[in-house]
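Predict structure. Chain length: 408.
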Amino acid sequence: MKILLIDVYHYHKGGAETVCLNTGKILEEHGHNVIYFALQWDKNLSCKQDRFFPLSKETRKGFFRNVLNLIHYFYYADAARKIEQLILDEKPDIAHIHLLWGQISSSILPVLKKYQIPIVFTMHDFRLVCPAYSFKDGHNRICEACAGKKFYKCVTHKCTKGSYFLSFFMAGEQYFRNYFFYPIKYVNGFIYVSNFAKEKLEKYMPQMKNVPNITLYNFSTEILSNSFYSSKKYFLYFGRLSYEKGVETLMRAFAQLPECTLKIAGTGPLKNDLNEFKQKHKLNNVEFVGYKCGEELVNLVRDAYFVIVPSEWYENNPMSIVESYSTGTPVIGARIGGIPEIIIDEKTGYQFESTNINSLIDIIRKADGLSVEEYKVFSQEAINFAKMNFNHSNYYSQLLSFYNTFLK
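Prediction complete.
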């Protein structure tokens, strides 16, 4: 089978890209031919199909660069042309989209339909029903005001970075897409990465219930066999440094936990603000270790005592939990979005009330007080959960079966 994998980025930028690239890897390991379509970015991995990749806002040059960026957010004609050239050259059997909106745009959907290529779409976020993608308003509060396609509420609530202009722009794209490129007309099957996401998306776009779908958790390429205990005993956050991730709440908790050590790995828009917070409050127990990836990140996660996922938005199926369990590291996670589905409280980790600093502090102290033997039980349970739910062999077999649903 020849599978076309589509993502905005062709490097490990975030969870969606990691899943996309890892999916390509396991498909190739099982003898399938995998081809890619993405935009041009400086960090892109080498790819045989990169001659078909359209320019991105990073690689586009010229006087009208910003104007073109705005236009292409709605409709990117060159993306449609390039993917048609790719289709004619490679003749894929099926297309699997991971990320699309706002960069590649909906322009490629009619092209795939024209050549009768079945489209499978993994729902990594909520962009299909929420203009700001995160169900958060301009005050960083959970917001579902756009229910019933009232996307103008994105503007009145300043949901996109607290800006009327950006919110107007995002709402406009949502109206444009729904009118001219309604996804239900093009997508043959949806893959949800959590039951929470399935329920939320189908609630706000009921037509999705009529489209074939499966719930398939993100997966790990390698899982440890036995529990692991590190004497280093530090708590770890790794991921994007942004408001919705709850990192500031996490740091405020550790300001009251001088006996515990926190390491923070990652980068993002809040990087400078969080560093200033650390200096202002003299948090000697908090260490920023920068962006980590590959083996360096694996070792950091494996050696951690607990990984903390303090999210304050509807996380779908965080790769940070998948990767933590795979190394035998239990997780403390906020009780929000899809997180409670994959943290068995007091077994593979602990849950706490999202945004509640006192709740988080209590749980960290509880985890910190575990004996070595008690901790090893948590570690083994995390591994067992990963083997049952994040196994790449199970992922592959279910994915291939879903693909075959749409092939003649």
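Summary: The chain has two domains: 2-134+176-219+391-404, 235-389.
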